[in-house]
Amino acid sequence: MENEAVSKNFIEQIIDQDIKEGHCKKVVTRFPPEPNGYLHIGHAKSILLNYGLAKEYNGQFNMRFDDTNPTKEKEEFVDSIKRDVEWLGAKWHGDVLFASGYFDQMYEAAVRLIKKGKAYVCDLTPEQIREYRGTLTEPGKESPYRNRSVEENLELFENMKNGVYKDGEKVLRAKIDMASPNINMRDPIIYRVAHISHHRTGDKWCIYPMYDFAHPIEDAIEGVSHSICTLEFEDHRPLYDWVVRELEYENPPRQIEFAKLYLNNVVTGKRYIKKLVEDKIVDGWDDPRLVSIAALRRRGFTPEAIKMFVDLVGVTKSQGAVEYPMLEYCIREDLKLKAKRMMAVLNPVKLVIDNYPEGQVEYMEVPNNQENPELGTRKVPFTKELYIEREDFMEEPPKKYFRMFPGNEVRLMNAYFVTCTGCEKDENGNVTVIHATYDEETRGGNFTGRKVKGTIHWVSATEGSPVEVRLYENIVDEEKGVYNEEDGSINVNPHSLTVLKNCYVEPELLKAQPEDKFQFVRNGYFTADSKDSEAGKPVFNRIVSLKSSFKMPAK
Question: For the whole prediction, is pTM greater than 0.90?
Answer without folding.
Answer: yes
